[in-house]
Amino acid sequence: xxxxxxxxxxxxxxxxxxxxxxxxxxxxxxxxxxxxxxxxxxxxxxxxxxxxxxxxxxxxxxxxxxxxxxxxxxxxxxxxxxxxxxxxxxxxxxxxxxxxxxxxxxxxxxxxxxxxxxxxxxxxxxxxxxxxxxxxxxxxxxxxxxxxxxxxxxxxxxxxxxxxxxxx
Length: 168
Known about the structure:
This protein is an alpha+beta fold and about 170 residues long. The protein folds into 2 domains: about 1-30; about 50-165, Lipocalin. About 30% of the residues lie in helices and about 25% in strands. The protein has 3 helices and 8 strands; from the N terminus they run H-E-E-E-E-E-E-E-E-H-H. Strands 1, 2, 3, 4, 5, 6, 7 and 8 form an 8-stranded antiparallel beta sheet that branches. The longest helix has 30 residues, at about 5-30. It is globular. Residues about 10-15 and about 15-25 have low confidence and may be disordered.
């Protein structure tokens, strides 16, 4: 009978279909797990030769830089980096920060000092990025380099390439 050959083939497919359905269930379960941040490790203080400039807005005279050596993407999907802001008068602010592409948030981990040391930020939790502000360097890094079109860079190398392309 011609239908008899279909039955064994169908029986072989049932375990595969059940396995695929189970994998979808597991995937859904993984997405429901609460996000957990990994501990951030402070990078070495930035060196001038590793700084890459990036544009924020023509509305500011400040200059903005990211330390190429400090950029990383953690297992928690946080893009971490050191930023240096040079004011028009020459004053410099250095900080180690993180961005979450999935939620549009930022976090400050530490402040840098002129002697090359860090001070951990106190009570600095995750805050929404100010997307309406022309002067927000977080917005510029998020939209133009680290989370373009809502897609997070896969690693520090990809982030550095994006920054260098724009700096040319």
